[in-house]
Amino acid sequence: MKVLHGLLLVTFAVQSVVPSVAPGAPSTPSALPDETTEGIEPELEPEPIDYEAAMGEVLAATRAADWDRALLATQPLFDAEDQLGEYARAESHFARGLVWYLREDAKPTHAGAYLASVPSFESARALAGSGELRLRANYDRGLALLWTAERWRGLIPEKSQEILQATGIPPIPAPPTPPVPDGADAPEPPDPLALARTFYLAAKDAFVERLRADWRDADTRANLELIGRRLRELDEIEQQREEQQQEQQQDQEQESEDQEQQDGEPSDEESSDENQDQENDGEPEDSESEGNPEDQESDEEQEPSLDERPENSAESEPEGEAGEAQQGDPSDERLLTREQVMRLLDKLEQLDGEREALEARIQRAQRIPVDRDW
Q1: Could you state, in order of their start, the residue ranges of all structural domains in the chain?
Q2: Which CATH number does 9-18+48-175+191-252 carry?
Q3: Measuring CA to CA, which residue among 89, 177, 98 is closest to residue 139?
Q4: Over the stretch 51-82, which tens digit does the pLDDT of each residue have?
Q5: Which of residues 158 and 259 earns the better pLDDT score?
Q6: The pTM is what?
């Protein structure tokens, strides 16, 4: 990018500047003392200023890069501003703005130092009319704003490392923060991206005004193209920040949801215990009745004693069950007592009687009645 200062160093010579009071002009006679003015000293008129000499001193100090002397040399021009015409005042403001601009350009201090020249350029633009001085003041005003935006761009975290690698020049630091009173909260640091955008837009307005006055100026068009690229770059950085912020927010929401689910779900040991309890609850409650299979087999092998058998079991027991009980395994044979033998015989007699009675009832039921015909 070719950025021109548009300096007015070679145009400091006075061009048709007529001071209000010419050097060496006689002063107006003072009024005769009377009763009303007696004891009051008359106001002294300021000494007429040598405009060409004062401007020459500013120009000499500027060429010598003696910035403090150059700024000091502009002060008499503002002290005698009432003696100067409008165009001379415009040149005085332009000279001071130029000194501030060149001083910062030679010895960078901080990101906002170029702004010290902007008020002087604006005053020169307002007083210069429609001539060349107005175009120069407007261009230099835009240039100071553009360099301020470029410095804040160098402080953007997404661009600072890239610019350092490309140029090898560290970024210009931010302006120093004012001291904070005791007990007051320190202000938040400014956002470099927002400030860069602000000054890019302000510089754009100045260059657009300059281009409308002279559309053929190539430097102004180049600066406007640069500002357009910078603004699109800032838009991309802001979009990336918004996307990253949305991703971080979604990740935080997902982590909170996962944490809530983990807090609501039981641990592995608790879940296994609950599943075991559910399985136990679903099993039938006759586990005690099932018991040990070996115990069940032993219970099935054991025959109930004669005393425990129901008395009316003739239909449920086969006739030869008593004999089978005695014909079991030789190892299971046992001797019956006399009382057991007697009860067994009585039982057999009872069964025989019941069997005979049953057969008699069956025979009677099977008889076919014969109709008598007499």
Answers
A1: 9-18+48-175+191-252
A2: 1.25.40.10
A3: 98
A4: 999 999 999 999 999 999 999 999 999 999 99
A5: 158
A6: 0.59
